[in-house]
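Hello again,

I reread your note about wanting to compare the complex against the isolated chains. To keep things tidy I'm splitting this into two emails, and this first one only covers the full assembly. Below are the input lines as submitted, including protein chains and any nucleic acid or small-molecule components. They are followed by the predicted structure of everything together. The single-chain runs will come separately.
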Amino acid sequence: MDNAKLVYNGQDYELPVVVGTENEAGIDISKLRAQTGAITLDPGYPNTGSCLSAITYLDGENGILRYRGYPIEQLAESATFTEVAWLLIYGELPNKAQLGDWRRQLSKHSFIHEDMLKFFEGFPITAHPMAILASMVCALSAYYPENVEEDLQTNIARVMAKAKTIAAFSYKKSVGEPVIYPISGYTYSANLLRMMFATPSEPYEVPKVFEDALRMLLILHADHEQNCSTSTVRMVGSSQASLYASMAAGVTALWGPRHGGANQAVIEMLEQIVAEGGDYKKFLDRVKNKDSGVRLMGFGHRVYRNFDPRAKLIKKQADKVLNHLGLQDPLLDLAKNMEEAALADDYFIERKLYPNVDFYSGIIYRAMGVPLNMYTVMFALGRLPGWIAHWKEMREDPQNKIYRPRQIYTGATQRDFVPLEER
Ligand code: CMC
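Full-complex prediction:
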């Protein structure tokens, strides 16, 4: 591809163009400031590529999502979450021996140090499980302070396995029940549900339909290239902060309602509409009135401008779970009505706003009995292999540099300090 040409301050500059394996083009401006003295300005980075990456391909115009080349639909249908995690982190599908060993490692490392249980005691019962997850994942760096890169595979297995246990324990904390330890021989999803819902006096038989739905949800959340939390993980990791500290940063970035926190916000929004009489058209009018500051949660995406392939799969899965249970959830009907009304409305059509991954996922969690404040935790567990994969890819890149964007300063120009008595 030809170089791009820039005319700035009456001078011509040539900028190389980098083309990816799917023909995505990027104008390489890495020497721009050295050559021109100017920087680029792109608030929120919608036009900025921060790295080269071989992990996930996303075509937002055509609703395509692939992990390491494999279509998300195929992985969601047939793969296990642990093999998808391996695929993302190590680049290829695991063979039998690798998968067996990976499973054994995840099982072996799924206990947390007993001393860490004291931390749980210190949190108030009202603590949001995302606050607990972020703190505890970061605290793992206090228990494994050695150089993680010397035995990266063990540390990767540790954080993957222990995050699930921490998540389940944070739920137990919120309901005031004793913790249930992980056991081997269960899938990742079944182990998590069992640790959440079994009690010392009552076992919990994990329904197959829940296990499968959670497997699919975790896979659909596993990576999404340079989203806010993954970019945060890369940003923090670029300073050579530890794997655990970088993962904790990912959890906190995910928490906000514009990102992973949207799954909780969707259900809160639907419940509010029901509580106010169920008039969703009135709610949509409020959303369209910019002064209200209200958004249709679970709608819109920075990259998808057609449809989110994950949302399609989750909507089908929500129907499957509810049908299997013979349940009717009025919130699912409401969500479907709102989707239909929004997709026919000029406001949403003009702005290319479609349901995203968070619009229907909460309906499935509700059916499973997962409480509202755990939804974003479930998202975080799903996204963990993606964060690890990006952290590893960045750290293994010999060209990797500390992330350090610039700015255009708009504050006061130089002025002299005025002593307090003269102000
Ligand atoms: N409801 C109403 N209007 C919206 C919405 C929405 N959900 N999303 C975007 N818009 C409007 C926005 O007001 C703007 O209108 P205008 O051009 O008139 O000013 C236009 O659409 C473009 O929006 P934007 O905020 O510039 O778009 P963005 O790419 O910066 O934001 C987003 C993407 C996901 C933060 C945003 O769509 C949003 O806030 N959605 C609701 C929260 C949500 O569901 N988040 C989950 C995202 S998917 C899971 C994940 O990756 O975490």
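For quick reference: The mean pLDDT is 95.

B.
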